[in-house]
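Incident review: delayed structure delivery

Summary: a single-chain prediction request sat in the queue longer than the usual turnaround. Root cause was a stuck worker, restarted by the on-call engineer. No data loss occurred. The affected request and its eventual output are reproduced below so the record is complete for anyone auditing the incident later.

Affected input:
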Amino acid sequence: QFPFGRRLPCDIYWHGVSFHDNDIFSGQVNKFPGMTEMVRKITLSRAVRTMQDLFPLEYNFYPRSWILPEEFPIFVAEVRMMKDSDPSWKPTFIVKPDGGCQGDGIYLIKDPSDIRLTGSIQSRPAVVQEYICKPLLVDKLKFDIRLYVLLKSLEPLEIYIAKDGLSRFCTEPYQEPTLKNLHQVFMHLTNYSLNIHSGNFIHSDSVNTGSKRTFSSILCRLSSRGADVKKLWSDIISLVIKTIIALTPELKVYYQSDIPAGKPGPTCFQILGFDILLMKNLKPMLLEVNANPSMRIEHEQELSPGVFENVPSPVDEEVKVAVIRDTLRLVDPQKKKR
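Output delivered after worker restart:
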């Protein structure tokens, strides 16, 4: 670590949060300029919706979304229209603050009028989405998948998807949302940083039990139930590629303004965290994209109230060590020289 920068050039610069160097003239940097802005909830929704307007069938893996506060009137009108045309439609919506992370500020509503339109939404824009009411359950629990995607270059577009990821489980058995259970975050929200505070959270010593498991262990179970795992993977790959294609035009603009062609500068790569939810019919839905997925391989365990210690997490280690190792192999600066 070089907290005050370093004088000699490196092969690979590994930044913590975002691309922020104007004095790197060679080598490779593990962040793209503008990526953090591009995957914020509002920007991502806008980019995907642009593609949904052009290619509705290709981009049907992202829930219907509206941007608050500016599209609140449209949201109210569209929901009313859909309810009028189909009185049996009883939707639930999920409100996510634009800059929020780790489940912060997320809540569920049944009716547009329930949105907390007070000062907070004006100062804190959000996305409201149709909530996926029929997720695939394992052990009666809702879960999501964190997949690691390496964007190795923008031109040519080169994408790698790690073969294994994490499955992060809710800690209360799932029921479809009703007015009574809307606020039960441990049932509806898969965020690890929320569920870790649940009394039912299980820190696991193996990759196929507990509140965090490997995605491959879930695929094994699905396969043994007769599910078409090959098709599921190909749907996930398609979702990842199409999402990155939706982000590419603006990413190129950021890239060219920070690293203009013809001037010496680094090349970029980045590990992204894709959060995906499987529906009951095994259709993958994109929840969000993280520019900065956590690479920690230990978890905090509370020994006594307020006293924590870090304990190795075999599940995180199995998945994340492989992600970093293979990333470094793929961007290996020595390869060309050999």
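Verification: The chain is about 30% helix and 25% strand.
Action items: add queue-age alerting; document worker restart procedure.
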